[in-house]
User: Fold this.
Amino acid sequence: MMKKEMYITGTIMKNRLAGAKEKLPSDKTMKNTGRGTSSELSTEDGKMCLVKWYDNKPVLMMSVVHGTEPEDTCQHWDKKLKQYVTVSPPSIVREYNLKMGGVDLIDRMISYYRMSARTKKWTMQMLMHFTDLALANSWLL
Assistant:
């Protein structure tokens, strides 16, 4: 991806990390530290960054562009305190949320109004999915 100058940022599942999981703090440690804590791990050449951030649950993100700095502040609702609390998300989370808003909205709309025909043929499933996608996109535009 770097050779083709494709700068990517995204979430990653923790079972895909191999040995990097042991270098990051545990979920329990981050929960005890509090909301908004983050930990960063990068490759030796500094081209890829892995960030673990704890808000209500731990989130793992990988990027070739962003890291934890500069941290920002935002307001999140706390169910226990029943008020807004100030949380500091890392830069990677802020940039991911800015860019992925439309994709998440389309996925949500497709899940609400999905075509209900059942079939085991993958070609028909793909055709129905792309029809759903086109309809949801046309509704937003």
Notes: The chain has one domain: 9-114. The CA atoms of residues 72 and 88 lie 5 Å apart.
